[in-house]
Amino acid sequence: QLNDAITIIVFGASGDLAGKKTYPALFNLYSTGVLPKKVHITGYARSDLSREEYVKRITAHLKINSDSDKQKLDEFLKITDYTQGQYDQDESWKTLDKHIEELEQERDLGKGQKNRLFYMALPPSVFLPVATGLSKFVYSSEGRNRIVIEKPFGKDLESSTQLAKDLGELFKEDEIYRIDHYLGKEMVKNIMTLRFANMFLGPMWSAESIDNVQITLKEPFGTEGRGGYFDEYNIIRDVMQNHLLQVFSLVAMEKPTGRDPESIRDAKVDLLRHVKPITLEDSLLGQYVANNDKPGYKDDDTVPEDSICPTFATLVLWIENERWKKVPFILKAGKGLDNAKVEVRIQFKDTPKGSLYEGAVRNELVLRIQPGEAIYFKFNNKRPGLSQQIITTDLDLTYKDRYKDMRVPDAYEGLILDVLRSDHSNFVRDDELDAAWRIFTPLLHKIERDRIEPKPYPYGSRGPKELDAFVKKYGVVRRSDV
Ligand code: BG6
Protein backbone atom coordinates (compact mmCIF):
# COMPACT_ATOMS: atom_id res chain seq x y z
CA GLN A 1 0.00 0.00 0.00
CA LEU A 2 1.19 3.46 -0.88
CA ASN A 3 1.67 5.92 1.96
CA ASP A 4 1.41 9.42 0.60
CA ALA A 5 -2.01 11.00 1.00
CA ILE A 6 -3.52 12.16 -2.26
CA THR A 7 -6.57 13.75 -3.87
CA ILE A 8 -7.22 12.48 -7.37
CA ILE A 9 -9.35 14.73 -9.54
CA VAL A 10 -10.73 13.05 -12.64
CA PHE A 11 -11.64 15.62 -15.30
CA GLY A 12 -14.18 14.41 -17.83
CA ALA A 13 -15.60 12.16 -15.12
CA SER A 14 -18.93 11.82 -16.91
CA GLY A 15 -17.29 10.74 -20.18
CA ASP A 16 -16.57 7.50 -21.92
CA LEU A 17 -12.89 7.12 -21.14
CA ALA A 18 -13.35 7.79 -17.43
CA GLY A 19 -16.20 5.27 -17.21
CA LYS A 20 -14.48 2.58 -19.25
CA LYS A 21 -10.90 2.93 -18.11
CA THR A 22 -10.07 5.43 -15.37
CA TYR A 23 -12.63 4.43 -12.74
CA PRO A 24 -12.33 0.66 -13.23
CA ALA A 25 -8.56 1.03 -12.81
CA LEU A 26 -8.97 3.16 -9.69
CA PHE A 27 -11.47 0.70 -8.27
CA ASN A 28 -9.17 -2.26 -8.84
CA LEU A 29 -6.26 -0.42 -7.25
CA TYR A 30 -8.51 0.40 -4.32
CA SER A 31 -9.87 -3.12 -3.88
CA THR A 32 -6.43 -4.71 -4.06
CA GLY A 33 -5.37 -2.38 -1.27
CA VAL A 34 -2.83 -0.43 -3.27
CA LEU A 35 -4.22 3.09 -2.98
CA PRO A 36 -3.04 5.03 0.06
CA LYS A 37 -5.31 5.15 3.13
CA LYS A 38 -5.75 8.87 2.85
CA VAL A 39 -7.00 8.96 -0.72
CA HIS A 40 -9.97 10.81 -2.11
CA ILE A 41 -11.27 10.81 -5.69
CA THR A 42 -13.26 13.75 -7.01
CA GLY A 43 -14.95 13.53 -10.38
CA TYR A 44 -15.25 16.81 -12.28
CA ALA A 45 -17.13 17.58 -15.49
CA ARG A 46 -19.50 20.04 -17.07
CA SER A 47 -22.58 17.79 -16.86
CA ASP A 48 -24.92 18.48 -14.02
CA LEU A 49 -25.07 15.00 -12.49
CA SER A 50 -26.85 13.94 -9.32
CA ARG A 51 -24.92 11.67 -6.97
CA GLU A 52 -27.00 8.78 -8.25
CA GLU A 53 -26.21 9.50 -11.91
CA TYR A 54 -22.52 9.90 -11.13
CA VAL A 55 -22.42 6.56 -9.32
CA LYS A 56 -24.22 4.92 -12.20
CA ARG A 57 -21.67 6.19 -14.71
CA ILE A 58 -18.58 5.29 -12.76
CA THR A 59 -19.80 1.84 -11.84
CA ALA A 60 -21.22 0.90 -15.25
CA HIS A 61 -18.05 -0.91 -16.27
CA LEU A 62 -16.97 -2.36 -12.93
CA LYS A 63 -16.97 -6.10 -12.48
CA ILE A 64 -18.85 -6.80 -9.29
CA ASN A 65 -19.24 -10.55 -8.89
CA SER A 66 -19.27 -11.37 -5.20
CA ASP A 67 -20.44 -10.01 -1.86
CA SER A 68 -16.94 -8.97 -1.06
CA ASP A 69 -16.78 -7.01 -4.35
CA LYS A 70 -20.00 -5.29 -3.33
CA GLN A 71 -18.54 -4.40 0.03
CA LYS A 72 -15.44 -3.01 -1.62
CA LEU A 73 -17.59 -0.99 -3.96
CA ASP A 74 -19.50 0.54 -1.05
CA GLU A 75 -16.21 1.51 0.57
CA PHE A 76 -14.88 2.85 -2.73
CA LEU A 77 -17.94 5.01 -3.28
CA LYS A 78 -17.40 6.58 0.13
CA ILE A 79 -14.08 7.99 -0.99
CA THR A 80 -15.39 9.52 -4.16
CA ASP A 81 -17.67 12.43 -5.03
CA TYR A 82 -18.63 14.57 -7.99
CA THR A 83 -18.31 18.29 -8.64
CA GLN A 84 -19.82 20.05 -11.60
CA GLY A 85 -18.00 22.98 -13.17
CA GLN A 86 -16.79 24.67 -16.35
CA TYR A 87 -13.42 24.24 -18.04
CA ASP A 88 -12.79 27.89 -18.80
CA GLN A 89 -14.08 29.94 -15.89
CA ASP A 90 -12.05 31.22 -12.97
CA GLU A 91 -15.03 30.88 -10.63
CA SER A 92 -15.30 27.16 -11.33
CA TRP A 93 -11.61 26.66 -10.56
CA LYS A 94 -11.82 28.62 -7.34
CA THR A 95 -14.79 26.54 -6.24
CA LEU A 96 -12.94 23.34 -7.07
CA ASP A 97 -9.88 24.47 -5.14
CA LYS A 98 -12.00 25.26 -2.12
CA HIS A 99 -13.69 21.89 -2.37
CA ILE A 100 -10.35 20.08 -2.44
CA GLU A 101 -9.15 22.10 0.54
CA GLU A 102 -12.17 20.96 2.50
CA LEU A 103 -11.50 17.37 1.54
CA GLU A 104 -7.91 17.80 2.68
CA GLN A 105 -9.07 19.21 6.00
CA GLU A 106 -11.46 16.31 6.53
CA ARG A 107 -8.54 13.94 6.20
CA ASP A 108 -6.42 16.09 8.43
CA LEU A 109 -3.67 16.54 5.91
CA GLY A 110 -0.76 18.66 6.98
CA LYS A 111 1.86 20.55 5.01
CA GLY A 112 3.59 18.32 2.47
CA GLN A 113 0.64 15.94 2.37
CA LYS A 114 -1.63 18.00 0.17
CA ASN A 115 -0.79 16.10 -2.98
CA ARG A 116 -3.00 16.51 -6.00
CA LEU A 117 -3.27 14.35 -9.07
CA PHE A 118 -5.11 15.91 -12.00
CA TYR A 119 -6.27 13.22 -14.39
CA MET A 120 -7.42 14.61 -17.73
CA ALA A 121 -9.82 12.18 -19.35
CA LEU A 122 -10.61 14.97 -21.78
CA PRO A 123 -10.68 15.78 -25.49
CA PRO A 124 -7.64 17.71 -26.75
CA SER A 125 -9.62 20.92 -27.33
CA VAL A 126 -9.88 21.52 -23.58
CA PHE A 127 -6.41 20.32 -22.44
CA LEU A 128 -4.94 23.78 -22.35
CA PRO A 129 -7.80 25.75 -20.79
CA VAL A 130 -8.00 23.13 -18.04
CA ALA A 131 -4.26 22.99 -17.45
CA THR A 132 -4.21 26.80 -17.32
CA GLY A 133 -7.03 26.95 -14.77
CA LEU A 134 -5.40 24.27 -12.67
CA SER A 135 -1.99 25.88 -12.57
CA LYS A 136 -3.50 29.25 -11.66
CA PHE A 137 -6.11 28.28 -9.12
CA VAL A 138 -5.89 24.63 -8.09
CA TYR A 139 -2.14 23.97 -7.91
CA SER A 140 -1.18 22.83 -4.43
CA SER A 141 1.57 24.84 -2.83
CA GLU A 142 1.77 22.43 0.09
CA GLY A 143 2.28 19.15 -1.66
CA ARG A 144 3.12 17.48 -4.90
CA ASN A 145 1.17 18.13 -8.12
CA ARG A 146 0.89 15.68 -10.97
CA ILE A 147 -1.02 16.05 -14.23
CA VAL A 148 -1.93 13.10 -16.43
CA ILE A 149 -2.85 13.71 -20.04
CA GLU A 150 -4.10 11.39 -22.74
CA LYS A 151 -3.23 11.42 -26.42
CA PRO A 152 -3.54 12.96 -28.96
CA PHE A 153 -0.59 15.20 -28.20
CA GLY A 154 -0.88 17.49 -31.20
CA LYS A 155 -1.47 16.63 -34.83
CA ASP A 156 2.00 17.06 -36.23
CA LEU A 157 5.46 18.19 -35.16
CA GLU A 158 4.52 21.85 -35.04
CA SER A 159 1.31 21.55 -33.04
CA SER A 160 2.85 19.03 -30.69
CA THR A 161 5.84 21.30 -30.03
CA GLN A 162 3.46 24.17 -29.36
CA LEU A 163 1.39 22.07 -26.95
CA ALA A 164 4.54 20.93 -25.14
CA LYS A 165 5.70 24.53 -24.87
CA ASP A 166 2.35 25.79 -23.57
CA LEU A 167 2.03 22.96 -21.09
CA GLY A 168 5.65 23.45 -20.09
CA GLU A 169 4.84 27.00 -19.00
CA LEU A 170 2.18 25.67 -16.66
CA PHE A 171 3.66 22.46 -15.26
CA LYS A 172 7.19 21.13 -14.86
CA GLU A 173 8.15 18.20 -17.07
CA ASP A 174 8.44 15.89 -14.06
CA GLU A 175 4.87 16.77 -13.06
CA ILE A 176 3.51 15.78 -16.50
CA TYR A 177 2.53 12.20 -17.31
CA ARG A 178 1.64 11.65 -20.97
CA ILE A 179 -0.22 8.38 -21.16
CA ASP A 180 0.21 5.99 -24.00
CA HIS A 181 -1.78 3.09 -22.65
CA TYR A 182 0.11 0.59 -24.80
CA LEU A 183 3.04 1.12 -22.46
CA GLY A 184 0.89 -0.32 -19.68
CA LYS A 185 0.09 -3.55 -21.50
CA GLU A 186 1.61 -6.66 -19.98
CA MET A 187 3.44 -7.92 -23.06
CA VAL A 188 4.72 -4.47 -23.93
CA LYS A 189 6.14 -4.14 -20.42
CA ASN A 190 7.76 -7.51 -20.92
CA ILE A 191 9.76 -6.54 -24.00
CA MET A 192 12.72 -5.17 -22.00
CA THR A 193 12.87 -8.23 -19.78
CA LEU A 194 12.66 -10.55 -22.74
CA ARG A 195 15.41 -8.76 -24.61
CA PHE A 196 17.86 -8.00 -21.85
CA ALA A 197 17.36 -10.73 -19.25
CA ASN A 198 17.84 -13.54 -21.77
CA MET A 199 21.45 -13.74 -22.84
CA PHE A 200 20.79 -16.02 -25.79
CA LEU A 201 18.62 -13.42 -27.54
CA GLY A 202 21.24 -10.67 -27.51
CA PRO A 203 23.39 -11.89 -30.41
CA MET A 204 20.33 -12.64 -32.56
CA TRP A 205 18.82 -9.20 -32.15
CA SER A 206 20.19 -7.46 -35.20
CA ALA A 207 20.41 -7.37 -38.98
CA GLU A 208 22.84 -10.30 -38.79
CA SER A 209 19.99 -12.69 -38.04
CA ILE A 210 16.77 -10.76 -38.54
CA ASP A 211 15.22 -10.21 -41.95
CA ASN A 212 12.25 -8.03 -41.04
CA VAL A 213 10.03 -7.05 -38.12
CA GLN A 214 6.26 -6.66 -38.41
CA ILE A 215 4.30 -4.78 -35.77
CA THR A 216 0.58 -5.12 -36.30
CA LEU A 217 -2.60 -3.76 -34.73
CA LYS A 218 -5.78 -5.09 -36.30
CA GLU A 219 -9.27 -4.21 -35.17
CA PRO A 220 -12.46 -5.85 -36.42
CA PHE A 221 -14.63 -2.77 -35.85
CA GLY A 222 -14.87 0.54 -37.66
CA THR A 223 -14.89 4.10 -36.42
CA GLU A 224 -18.61 4.01 -35.66
CA GLY A 225 -19.59 7.05 -33.64
CA ARG A 226 -16.08 8.52 -33.73
CA GLY A 227 -16.03 9.61 -37.34
CA GLY A 228 -15.65 13.28 -36.47
CA TYR A 229 -12.52 12.74 -34.41
CA PHE A 230 -11.12 10.06 -36.64
CA ASP A 231 -11.38 12.01 -39.85
CA GLU A 232 -9.13 14.66 -38.40
CA TYR A 233 -6.63 12.18 -36.99
CA ASN A 234 -6.68 9.06 -39.23
CA ILE A 235 -5.18 5.69 -38.38
CA ILE A 236 -1.60 7.00 -38.45
CA ARG A 237 -2.17 9.59 -35.74
CA ASP A 238 -4.68 7.47 -33.87
CA VAL A 239 -2.57 4.40 -33.16
CA MET A 240 0.68 4.36 -35.15
CA GLN A 241 2.58 7.51 -34.21
CA ASN A 242 1.99 6.57 -30.57
CA HIS A 243 1.02 2.97 -29.68
CA LEU A 244 2.86 1.13 -32.44
CA LEU A 245 5.85 3.45 -32.30
CA GLN A 246 6.23 2.77 -28.58
CA VAL A 247 6.25 -0.96 -29.22
CA PHE A 248 8.72 -0.40 -32.04
CA SER A 249 10.99 1.66 -29.76
CA LEU A 250 11.15 -1.06 -27.13
CA VAL A 251 11.90 -3.72 -29.72
CA ALA A 252 14.59 -1.75 -31.55
CA MET A 253 16.29 0.50 -28.99
CA GLU A 254 19.83 -0.13 -27.76
CA LYS A 255 20.23 -1.43 -24.21
CA PRO A 256 19.52 1.46 -21.83
CA THR A 257 22.32 2.36 -19.46
CA GLY A 258 20.02 1.65 -16.51
CA ARG A 259 16.50 0.53 -15.68
CA ASP A 260 15.53 3.97 -14.38
CA PRO A 261 12.93 6.01 -16.32
CA GLU A 262 15.37 8.51 -17.82
CA SER A 263 17.78 5.89 -19.11
CA ILE A 264 14.95 4.00 -20.78
CA ARG A 265 13.52 7.13 -22.33
CA ASP A 266 17.00 8.27 -23.43
CA ALA A 267 17.44 4.97 -25.27
CA LYS A 268 14.10 5.39 -27.02
CA VAL A 269 14.77 8.97 -28.07
CA ASP A 270 18.18 8.00 -29.35
CA LEU A 271 16.62 5.28 -31.49
CA LEU A 272 13.87 7.53 -32.85
CA ARG A 273 16.45 10.07 -33.92
CA HIS A 274 18.00 7.39 -36.12
CA VAL A 275 14.74 6.62 -37.92
CA LYS A 276 14.26 8.11 -41.38
CA PRO A 277 11.02 10.04 -41.96
CA ILE A 278 8.54 7.72 -43.71
CA THR A 279 8.08 8.22 -47.43
CA LEU A 280 4.93 7.76 -49.46
CA GLU A 281 6.68 5.01 -51.44
CA ASP A 282 7.10 3.08 -48.20
CA SER A 283 3.38 3.36 -47.39
CA LEU A 284 0.21 1.59 -48.32
CA LEU A 285 -2.97 3.40 -47.31
CA GLY A 286 -6.48 2.01 -47.22
CA GLN A 287 -10.03 2.93 -46.33
CA TYR A 288 -12.78 0.40 -45.63
CA VAL A 289 -15.91 0.31 -47.76
CA ALA A 290 -19.31 -1.24 -47.09
CA ASN A 291 -19.53 -5.01 -47.10
CA ASN A 292 -22.81 -6.88 -46.67
CA ASP A 293 -24.56 -5.27 -43.73
CA LYS A 294 -21.42 -3.45 -42.54
CA PRO A 295 -21.15 0.25 -43.39
CA GLY A 296 -18.21 1.82 -45.17
CA TYR A 297 -16.13 4.51 -43.44
CA LYS A 298 -17.76 7.24 -45.53
CA ASP A 299 -21.27 6.02 -44.68
CA ASP A 300 -20.83 7.67 -41.29
CA ASP A 301 -22.79 10.96 -41.27
CA THR A 302 -19.99 12.76 -39.46
CA VAL A 303 -17.46 11.91 -42.21
CA PRO A 304 -17.19 14.14 -45.33
CA GLU A 305 -18.29 12.40 -48.50
CA ASP A 306 -14.95 12.92 -50.20
CA SER A 307 -12.84 11.95 -47.20
CA ILE A 308 -9.40 10.56 -48.01
CA CYS A 309 -8.76 9.58 -44.40
CA PRO A 310 -6.84 6.30 -44.14
CA THR A 311 -8.44 3.76 -41.79
CA PHE A 312 -5.65 1.35 -42.67
CA ALA A 313 -1.95 1.87 -43.19
CA THR A 314 1.17 -0.17 -43.63
CA LEU A 315 4.26 1.97 -43.16
CA VAL A 316 7.85 0.89 -43.40
CA LEU A 317 10.42 2.35 -41.03
CA TRP A 318 14.15 2.27 -41.63
CA ILE A 319 16.66 2.74 -38.84
CA GLU A 320 19.98 4.25 -39.77
CA ASN A 321 22.28 2.50 -37.38
CA GLU A 322 24.67 -0.41 -37.43
CA ARG A 323 22.34 -2.87 -35.71
CA TRP A 324 19.36 -2.50 -38.03
CA LYS A 325 20.98 -1.75 -41.35
CA LYS A 326 18.53 -2.66 -44.16
CA VAL A 327 16.02 -4.29 -41.81
CA PRO A 328 12.50 -3.06 -42.60
CA PHE A 329 10.21 -2.49 -39.64
CA ILE A 330 6.73 -2.85 -41.03
CA LEU A 331 4.03 -1.13 -39.00
CA LYS A 332 0.52 -2.15 -39.92
CA ALA A 333 -2.75 -0.94 -38.41
CA GLY A 334 -6.34 -0.93 -39.49
CA LYS A 335 -9.98 -0.68 -38.53
CA GLY A 336 -12.77 -2.78 -40.02
CA LEU A 337 -10.45 -5.75 -40.58
CA ASP A 338 -11.02 -9.49 -40.36
CA ASN A 339 -9.97 -9.98 -36.75
CA ALA A 340 -8.55 -8.43 -33.57
CA LYS A 341 -4.83 -8.86 -33.08
CA VAL A 342 -1.87 -6.91 -31.82
CA GLU A 343 1.49 -8.56 -32.23
CA VAL A 344 5.18 -8.19 -32.97
CA ARG A 345 6.46 -10.73 -35.49
CA ILE A 346 10.19 -11.00 -35.92
CA GLN A 347 11.12 -12.89 -39.02
CA PHE A 348 14.61 -14.35 -39.07
CA LYS A 349 16.73 -14.83 -42.15
CA ASP A 350 16.50 -17.87 -44.39
CA THR A 351 19.02 -20.65 -44.02
CA PRO A 352 21.85 -19.80 -46.44
CA LYS A 353 21.86 -21.00 -50.02
CA GLY A 354 23.88 -24.16 -50.42
CA SER A 355 23.71 -24.93 -46.69
CA LEU A 356 22.65 -28.27 -45.25
CA TYR A 357 19.09 -27.20 -44.70
CA GLU A 358 18.60 -24.74 -47.49
CA GLY A 359 14.93 -23.98 -47.93
CA ALA A 360 13.89 -24.67 -44.33
CA VAL A 361 10.99 -22.53 -43.16
CA ARG A 362 12.07 -19.24 -41.57
CA ASN A 363 12.16 -18.91 -37.81
CA GLU A 364 9.75 -16.42 -36.34
CA LEU A 365 9.47 -15.01 -32.87
CA VAL A 366 6.00 -13.70 -32.13
CA LEU A 367 5.02 -11.58 -29.15
CA ARG A 368 1.26 -11.49 -28.98
CA ILE A 369 0.15 -8.42 -27.10
CA GLN A 370 -3.57 -9.15 -27.38
CA PRO A 371 -5.93 -10.90 -27.28
CA GLY A 372 -4.36 -13.34 -24.85
CA GLU A 373 -0.69 -12.65 -24.19
CA ALA A 374 1.66 -15.20 -25.71
CA ILE A 375 5.21 -15.60 -26.90
CA TYR A 376 5.87 -18.26 -29.45
CA PHE A 377 8.82 -19.20 -31.53
CA LYS A 378 8.45 -21.00 -34.80
CA PHE A 379 11.30 -23.38 -35.38
CA ASN A 380 12.21 -26.47 -37.34
CA ASN A 381 12.36 -29.92 -35.84
CA LYS A 382 13.00 -33.40 -37.15
CA ARG A 383 9.77 -35.29 -37.48
CA PRO A 384 9.97 -37.85 -34.68
CA GLY A 385 10.33 -41.42 -35.81
CA LEU A 386 12.04 -43.08 -38.71
CA SER A 387 12.04 -40.00 -40.84
CA GLN A 388 14.45 -37.21 -41.54
CA GLN A 389 11.71 -34.89 -42.63
CA ILE A 390 11.59 -31.41 -41.13
CA ILE A 391 8.49 -30.13 -39.45
CA THR A 392 7.97 -26.58 -38.36
CA THR A 393 6.51 -26.26 -34.92
CA ASP A 394 6.06 -23.78 -32.05
CA LEU A 395 7.76 -23.27 -28.73
CA ASP A 396 4.71 -21.87 -27.08
CA LEU A 397 4.39 -19.70 -24.00
CA THR A 398 0.72 -18.86 -23.83
CA TYR A 399 0.10 -16.93 -20.63
CA LYS A 400 -3.31 -18.31 -19.78
CA ASP A 401 -1.88 -21.86 -19.79
CA ARG A 402 1.44 -21.08 -18.12
CA TYR A 403 0.42 -18.52 -15.52
CA LYS A 404 -2.97 -19.93 -14.64
CA ASP A 405 -3.61 -18.14 -11.37
CA MET A 406 -2.08 -14.81 -12.22
CA ARG A 407 -4.28 -11.87 -13.01
CA VAL A 408 -3.08 -9.63 -15.81
CA PRO A 409 -4.22 -6.13 -14.77
CA ASP A 410 -5.58 -3.65 -17.25
CA ALA A 411 -2.99 -1.30 -18.71
CA TYR A 412 -4.47 1.71 -16.91
CA GLU A 413 -4.11 0.09 -13.50
CA GLY A 414 -0.37 -0.20 -13.80
CA LEU A 415 -0.04 3.25 -15.30
CA ILE A 416 -2.00 5.00 -12.56
CA LEU A 417 0.06 3.14 -10.02
CA ASP A 418 3.21 4.39 -11.75
CA VAL A 419 1.92 7.96 -11.51
CA LEU A 420 1.25 7.53 -7.80
CA ARG A 421 4.80 6.27 -7.38
CA SER A 422 6.10 9.14 -9.55
CA ASP A 423 7.65 6.64 -11.93
CA HIS A 424 7.92 8.07 -15.43
CA SER A 425 9.28 4.94 -17.17
CA ASN A 426 6.04 4.15 -18.96
CA PHE A 427 5.17 7.69 -19.98
CA VAL A 428 6.14 9.72 -22.99
CA ARG A 429 8.77 12.43 -22.54
CA ASP A 430 8.53 15.71 -24.47
CA ASP A 431 11.63 15.11 -26.59
CA GLU A 432 10.41 11.60 -27.38
CA LEU A 433 7.22 13.09 -28.72
CA ASP A 434 9.18 15.46 -30.92
CA ALA A 435 11.32 12.67 -32.29
CA ALA A 436 8.21 10.59 -32.97
CA TRP A 437 6.39 13.35 -34.85
CA ARG A 438 9.47 14.07 -36.95
CA ILE A 439 9.18 10.57 -38.43
CA PHE A 440 5.50 10.89 -39.38
CA THR A 441 4.88 14.56 -40.11
CA PRO A 442 6.23 14.79 -43.72
CA LEU A 443 4.10 11.82 -44.76
CA LEU A 444 0.98 13.14 -43.01
CA HIS A 445 1.39 16.52 -44.65
CA LYS A 446 1.95 14.98 -48.05
CA ILE A 447 -1.16 12.82 -47.78
CA GLU A 448 -3.24 15.84 -46.87
CA ARG A 449 -1.67 18.31 -49.28
CA ASP A 450 -1.70 16.02 -52.32
CA ARG A 451 -4.95 14.34 -51.30
CA ILE A 452 -3.56 10.84 -51.66
CA GLU A 453 -6.46 8.46 -52.21
CA PRO A 454 -6.42 5.42 -49.95
CA LYS A 455 -7.07 2.01 -51.52
CA PRO A 456 -10.52 0.66 -50.76
CA TYR A 457 -10.92 -2.61 -48.84
CA PRO A 458 -14.11 -4.35 -47.80
CA TYR A 459 -15.09 -4.14 -44.14
CA GLY A 460 -14.07 -7.39 -42.48
CA SER A 461 -11.25 -8.22 -44.93
CA ARG A 462 -7.46 -8.42 -44.43
CA GLY A 463 -6.97 -4.95 -45.93
CA PRO A 464 -6.42 -3.60 -49.47
CA LYS A 465 -5.76 -6.26 -52.10
CA GLU A 466 -2.36 -4.66 -52.73
CA LEU A 467 -1.16 -5.65 -49.24
CA ASP A 468 0.53 -8.97 -49.95
CA ALA A 469 2.50 -7.67 -52.89
CA PHE A 470 3.46 -4.59 -50.90
CA VAL A 471 4.94 -6.44 -47.91
CA LYS A 472 6.61 -8.98 -50.18
CA LYS A 473 8.76 -6.15 -51.55
CA TYR A 474 10.27 -5.86 -48.09
CA GLY A 475 11.08 -9.55 -47.85
CA VAL A 476 8.12 -10.69 -45.77
CA VAL A 477 7.38 -14.35 -46.31
CA ARG A 478 3.85 -15.41 -45.43
CA ARG A 479 3.20 -18.98 -44.38
CA SER A 480 0.79 -19.42 -47.26
CA ASP A 481 3.61 -18.47 -49.69
CA VAL A 482 5.88 -21.28 -48.47
C1 BG6 B 1 -6.92 4.26 -28.85
C2 BG6 B 1 -7.45 4.65 -30.20
O1 BG6 B 1 -5.87 5.09 -28.47
O2 BG6 B 1 -6.47 2.94 -28.88
C3 BG6 B 1 -8.55 3.70 -30.64
O3 BG6 B 1 -7.94 5.97 -30.18
C4 BG6 B 1 -8.07 2.27 -30.56
O4 BG6 B 1 -8.99 3.99 -31.95
C5 BG6 B 1 -7.47 1.98 -29.20
O5 BG6 B 1 -9.18 1.42 -30.80
C6 BG6 B 1 -6.84 0.60 -29.15
O6 BG6 B 1 -6.52 0.30 -27.82
P1 BG6 B 1 -6.73 -1.16 -27.27
O7 BG6 B 1 -6.19 -1.12 -25.88
O8 BG6 B 1 -8.21 -1.44 -27.32
O9 BG6 B 1 -5.96 -2.06 -28.17
Automatic annotation (TrEMBL):
**What's the EC number here?**
1.1.1.49
Q: What InterPro entries does this protein map onto?
A: G6P_DH, G6P_DH_AS, G6P_DH_C, G6P_DH_NAD-bd, NAD(P)-bd_dom_sf
Query: Which residues are in the Glucose-6-phosphate dehydrogenase C-terminal domain?
Result: 192-475
Source domain of life: Eukaryota
Q: Which reaction does it catalyse?
A: D-glucose 6-phosphate + NADP(+) = 6-phospho-D-glucono-1,5-lactone + NADPH + H(+)
An example GO biological process term is: glucose metabolic process
Pathway(s) of this molecule:
Carbohydrate degradation; pentose phosphate pathway; D-ribulose 5-phosphate from D-glucose 6-phosphate (oxidative stage): step 1/3
Query: What GO MF terms are annotated?
Result: glucose-6-phosphate dehydrogenase activity; NADP binding
UniProt keyword terms in alphabetical order: Carbohydrate metabolism, Glucose metabolism, NADP, Oxidoreductase
Glucose-6-phosphate dehydrogenase NAD-binding domain spans which residues?
9-190
The regions listed as transmembrane in this protein's record are none
A cellular component term from Gene Ontology for this protein is: cytosol
Its family? Belongs to the glucose-6-phosphate dehydrogenase family.
Q: Which NCBIfam families match?
A: zwf
Protein's job: Catalyzes the rate-limiting step of the oxidative pentose-phosphate pathway, which represents a route for the dissimilation of carbohydrates besides glycolysis.
* Name of this chain's protein: Glucose-6-phosphate 1-dehydrogenase
